[in-house]
Amino acid sequence: MTRLHFAVDHGGYELGRALQKRAEDAGYEVVWHGADALDPGDDYPLFTIAAAKATVADQDAAVDAFGVVVVDEASAGVIAANKVNGARAVTAASPRGAATTREVVDANVLVFEGIAFEENAWHTIAAFVTTHLPHDVARGRQILQIEEYENAGTIEGWAVQLEPEQIAVTHED
Q1: CA atoms of 141 and 156, how far apart (whole Å)
Q2: Which of 16, 77, 141, 151 has the fewest CB neighbours in a 10 Å radius?
Q3: Are the C-beta atoms of residues 68 and 17 closer than 8 Å to each other?
Q4: CA–CA distance from 42 to each of 16, 24, 54 (Å)?
């Protein structure tokens, strides 16, 4: 079962609760990281970082998990979530956009603005959590380079080595 870590602030509270209900009704396991009530004075980093940390911890433990953040300003949520080592937070305005972020950077946290349309946001979440990173050497290498910089502050250019059985061989007759 896929686990979704939800985080919302005052600007995303109503949409976040609606998406939480849809996710639970669809059979996803939902973990709520706040806000617990509509509070116009709350601060998005507390909730966003908690959801991103939980998402990364679950993924590190081989749990199928993603973060869903709904805040007043999506770009602010993306920046906050991406401060968590291992989080690859993005915003996407459509299911196609969400699928692309999964295929290109293996994004694991999806951020919406609270003014997003519920129906579109729900379909975007569904595309996000059901799209997988393709087995592509170039994409894997690029993600490793990002992680290398995140962890070591350098990009030495990690090489992805393939075993001979992983390389498709065709024979000309």
Answers
A1: 11
A2: 151
A3: no
A4: 15, 25, 20
CA distance 84 to 103: 21
- Residue 56 φ/ψ region, left for φ over 0, alpha for ψ in the -120 to 50 degree band, beta for the rest: alpha
Euclidean distance between CA atoms 28 and 23, whole angstroms: 5
CATH assignment, 3-130: 3.40.1400.10
Nearest C-alpha neighbor of 123 from the set 101, 98, 100: 98
Per-residue pLDDT tens digits for 96-114: 999 999 999 999 999 999 9
Instruction: Say what the pTM is.
Output: 0.86
